[in-house]
Fold:
Amino acid sequence: MDLIDSHAHLTSEALASDVDGVLQRAVDAGVSTVVTISTDAADAEACVRLARLKQGVHCSVGIHPHEAGKVHAGDMDRLRVLADDPNVVAIGELGLDYHYDFSDQSSQKRVLDMQLEWAGQLDLALVVHCREAFEDVSAALLAHGFRDRRVVFHCFTGTADEARRAAQAGWRISFTGIVTFKRSTELQAIARDYPADQLMLETDSPYLSPIPVRSIRPNEPAHLAHTAKFLAELRGISLDEFAAATSANTRAFFGLG
Structure:
């Protein structure tokens, strides 16, 4: 079995202190590759440094909507420089979060537009954070010319209609351990019928540990195997077949070797 964790935060405080152990446990569980995602300019630099050092690690550069209110002059220039690094396979995570509003909505929209403006000039995938903001996020993506480009709504917890509309725009969604939760019936229905050639998995670690390790903190890439097993059974195929398909999809999406 060969799985890819398409979205983790290896530079987070919860994982960074034991990153070698985290990566070894991932390999032992069948997770050969991890894309570590940045949340601000300083974290983007840390992600690039880690990806340069660790086999099987790739990274993104971007500013999370929670951090939008803290953006300083020059942060976008730092990201543009980092985006040229060969270990960078995506821009993000960027987007809008109207659930927590840790940054005010005007700052979130401003920083999203700033990132989309220069990301549109690059041939890199886009990792989108969207919580209770699908209308505004999709409008921004379309306004900046991202229809039918490599865009993933990570940790998707939206509606079936939103999943359908994302697909119509040429975008995809990815699934975390949330899909294993008993109350995630609508998300499970989406995952059951989601196109096999677009499926991607993630942990969003150190958050969202899946069943049967939901009580374990922090979450880590090794736990992706539980989500994969759940979804393979949900879709009625073998785990090896499911893992091969999702890994091929993820490699193609991010342009991994």
In short: The chain has a mean pLDDT of 97. The chain has one domain: 3-254. Residues 239-254 form the longest helix (16 residues). DSSP finds ten helices and seven strands in the chain.
